[in-house]
Design brief:
270 residues; alpha/beta; 55% helix
Length: 270
């Protein structure tokens, strides 16, 4: 990949799209991970106002520190980049505490944890759109190709709720290439990918069951139409993980189904 050309193309695309909207710039949620670091850097490259929002909710301290380091470096490098911070922990706790004990009693821990993680993601989305509304900005998404169109590893109406998706045509490997060219902090480049939604250091690999390079190979097999019977061992195992998650999360990747009422039904015909 010609990293410099890709970075410049995305920045120009973002700027061109912005010009047609009447908005003044972008807001990006900074998590301490590679995707948000790359997207915020690309947004800053446009020369338009770029709001870098850190929005922790019971987030692991190491992730918060990586996010803060990135924002410090980005705002020092680009005069159009600004830092904003809102600790949403109390807001999330108030939300979670508003449910009656009977609503959660008896639910498996895995269900409670996932529901909580998705609620955190949606609360962050609400905060990003609040900043966007206050400042006439677009919310720039941070999903990559594997997450958005492969295994659906994002929260519907959470981190999937965005105005534009600058890196959704790039694999995770390509995002890391861009990150190195954009001089993203080494701490972010070296850290295992994590969604930061569980208050600990669990990684994406632990949640999905495969690394991003493994998933990229599986996605390539699916796109080429490889006969899965020709795959064996770990390669077949990851292929099955990819296909299973892709099918289960298809509802995230396709438009919301709309019930179209035929004229004959509206008119009472049989």
């Amino acid at each position: 990949m010609n990293t410099e050309a890709v970075a410049e193309y995305i920045a120009e695309w973002m700027s061109g799209y912005l010009d047609g909207t009447g908005a003044r710039g972008f807001v990006v949620g900074i998590s301490g991970g590679i995707d948000s670091a790359v997207v915020s850097s690309l947004a800053a490259m446009t020369g338009h106002r770029t709001l870098c929002a850190t929005l922790p909710i019971h987030q692991a301290q190491a992730q918060v520190e990586r996010a803060e380091e990135h924002v410090r470096r980005l705002t020092a490098r680009y005069p159009n980049a600004e830092a904003v911070h809102a600790d949403l922990t109390a807001a999330y706790d108030a939300f979670a505490g508003s449910f009656a004990p009977a609503d959660v009693q008896g639910k498996p821990e895995s269900v409670l944890h996932l529901a909580g993680a998705n609620a955190r993601s949606r609360l962050r989305m609400t905060a990003l759109y609040y900043y966007a509304g206050l400042n006439n900005l677009l919310v720039a998404g941070t999903g990559n190709k594997i997450e958005d169109f492969g295994v659906g590893f994002f929260t519907k109406y959470g981190d999937g709720g965005v105005d534009i998706s600058p890196i959704a045509d790039l694999t995770k490997t390509e995002v890391y290439e861009l990150g190195r060219w954009l001089e993203v902090p080494e701490a972010i480049l070296a850290a295992p990918p994590t969604d930061g939604l569980f208050g600990d250091d669990r990684t994406d690999e632990q949640q999905i069951g495969a690394t991003y390079p493994e998933l990229e190979r599986a996605m390539a097999h699916v796109e080429r139409g490889t006969d899965p019977s020709r795959l064996a061992g770990r390669e077949r195992e990851v292929y099955d993980i990819f296909v299973r998650r892709n099918r289960a999360n298809r509802h995230k990747m396709e438009p919301v189904p709309v019930c179209r009422i035929p004229c004959r039904v509206r008119d009472g015909e049989r």
